[in-house]
Amino acid sequence: MNKKIVLLPGDGIGAEVIHSAKDVLEAISQKFNHTFTFETHDIGGVAVDNHGTPLPDQTIQACKLADAVLLGAVGGPKWDNNPSHLRPERGLLGIRKALDLYANLRPVKGFPKLLHASPLKEEIINGSDLLIVRELTGGLYFGTPSERRDNGNAVVDTLTYTRKEIERIVEKAFQSAELRSKKLTSVDKANVLESSKLWREIVEEKKADYPNVSVDHVLVDAAAMKLITNPSQFDVIVTENMFGDILSDEASVLTGSLGMLPSASLAENGVGLYEPAHGSAPDIAGKGIANPIAMILSSALMLRYSFDLDEEARAIETAVESIINDNYHTADLKTSGGKLVSTTEMTQLVVNAI
User: Domains of the chain, with CATH numbers?
Assistant: First the structure.
C-alpha cells in the first residue's frame, strides 16, 4: 500500500510529537511492507509568522490531495494579542471546515498501570472505556461572526445547526455504538436551547433505524457530573460542538493525562485528520519531555479509519500498552516507581516494540 500523509506540526510541542508519529509509521511501513510518503505544511501560529495567515491556501490544497492528515497542535501566548482572524486557532477551525470534518471521534480508555495517575479514585475509573462523538463543523464556533455591540459592552455569539448537520453526526454515533456495546448517550441542553430540542427530536427519529442500540438522553450538566462520578456507565456519547469540546477534555482525567488521548476527525467523503487531544504546551516545547503517546495513538486511528489497516493499528496500540505496562512514562504522568523517559526515548521504545 502506498499512501500520502500530510503532516501539520503547528506550534509548541506539535513538531516534536509529529516527529514521533512519523517514526512509528515508518516502523509500521517496514514491518508490513507499506509505503508512506510525508509532506509537511504550516498551520496555526507558525503559519501566521511565515505566511501572514493561520491557514495558507497551499496547506488546504495539500490536505485535500492527501490520503490522510496528521496535525500536532496550534496556539501559544506569542499570538494571544493577535486580531481574531490571525489567531492560530483559526487555522484549526478553518481546516476542519475546509475538509468538512464533521465528526470527531475521541476514544477514552484508561490503562490499568496508569489508573493511579488520575486525580479520581481508581475504583471509580477502573473499567472505563468510552467513545465521545462530537459534531465538529457547526454550533457556536461556526455561527454568524461574533460581534461587539453598545461600544463593546455587549456581545453576540450565534449557535446555528441545520437538520442535515445533526442527522449525519447522530448517524455516525449510532454506527459507532453498533460496533461497540450498543449503548448510546445523547447529551444536550433540551430544557433550555432550541437547537438541543431539535437535536433530541432527531436522535429519537434515528433510533428506529438502529433497534439494537439503546438510547439515553442526558443534559450536559448532568453528563459532566456523571463522567467523573460513574464513567463506566457510558459507552458512546454523542453531542454538539461546544459540549463535546468541554466533555472530551474533562474525560482526560480518566487516563491521567491529555497526553494519552488521540482523536480522529472524519468527513463524509474525503480525507480524515488525526490529532492528539492536548494543546501546544508552549511552556515545555523544546525540552524533550512532551508525551508523544496521544499523537502516536492518533496515527493508529489514521491507519484504521482512513486506510482500513486494522492489524497495523493494533500493532501500534499493543506496542504502546506494552511500554506502559513496563512502567515507562513521560513527565506528565507523574508515576511513582516507574521509569521516566524523554519524548524521543518513549518514541524509540514504541518503535522497538513494533
Answer: 1-109+268-354 (3.40.718.10), 119-254 (3.40.718.10)
